[in-house]
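User: Before I run my own analysis I want an independent prediction to cross-check against. Here's the chain; please return only the structure tokens and, at the end, one sentence I can use as a sanity check.
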Amino acid sequence: MKSRIIGLFLLTLFIVFFLSGCVSSTSAMFKTNIDDVKVSVDGEEKGKTPTQAKLGNALWDNPTVVLTKPGYKTNEVVIKKELKVNNLVFGILLWWPSLLYVWGPAPVQYFEMIPE
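Assistant: Structure tokens:
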């Protein structure tokens, strides 16, 4: 009986540990007050707004995002970040390296473009 309880506990721990791992990136949607603004992340073009790009959740990951469109001022922006609760809980309870991925980009990034 005792070995069954230990086995069930280990199986539950295995399932929780391997199936609910930390999320190391977020798919962020870039939106602006006008359409067709070119979005570049760390020098790599990601498309025209509205568009999505995968951004890392690592604490040290701070990508440079540049928004450009003819007739508008070039906008070099700072990513809006938020706490990733799943990674925080997982890091506190089971796997401390997940705490390195608790501060990532918000899923929607909205920016205003200003005419020249």
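Sanity check: Residues 2-19 form the longest helix (18 residues).
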